[in-house]
Amino acid sequence: MKFQATPLPGVLEVLAEPAVDMRGRFLRSWCEAEFAAAGIDFRPVQASISENRARHTLRGMHWQAAPAAERKLVRCLRGAAFDVVIDLRPASPTYRRWYGITLSAAEHNAVFIPQGCAHGFLTLGEACWLEYLIDAPHAPEAARGLRWDDPGISIAWPAAPAVISARDAAWPDHG
Ligand SMILES: Cc1cn([C@H]2C[C@H](O)[C@@H](COP(=O)(O)OP(=O)(O)O[C@H]3O[C@H](C)C(=O)[C@H](O)[C@H]3O)O2)c(=O)[nH]c1=O
Fold it and tell me: What does this protein do (predicted)?
């Protein structure tokens, strides 16, 4: 796997290096040693799958408050999604900046999200599934969010959401 920096410090695109033969592809989706060699101490304790039926389903923008903060590796297992990370680390030079990346099952690219960043995505087709590898146990009481169309963040989504949960539609601006 290859690790590519993004404009947000610590947010990385992780590119697969599939072994391709006449049967198909085999690719390493996570490797403690390869992450460590890239300077990333990432040991997941939870793997989750987000199955989304409709095109332009939006989930986000979420993060977990300390001490339940998470590092996440997110990839698309089916279809494609516009995936967005927002830097919410006050000491970061890119504080309150966002970065978007298209994740697809065809590319098998992934995005590594450090602690202190909000995450969300918009599906780009029907039947879009994403997999999360997370390095902290789920803590519902630590869930935090900001609205997907926060004017102070101004994410350039490819489309408005057609499907969004009431909770996600009701998050406040980040202020
Ligand atoms: C997030 C999470 C949820 N769950 C259970 C709890 C609920 O019974 C169910 C759905 O949870 P929720 O509605 O919070 O899921 P999303 O709205 O998709 O939230 C996620 O989507 C955004 C885009 C994220 O980046 C986060 O991983 C996460 O906030 O899965 C778990 O068991 N473990 C988990 O880590």
Answer: Catalyzes the epimerization of the C3' and C5'positions of dTDP-6-deoxy-D-xylo-4-hexulose, forming dTDP-6-deoxy-L-lyxo-4-hexulose.
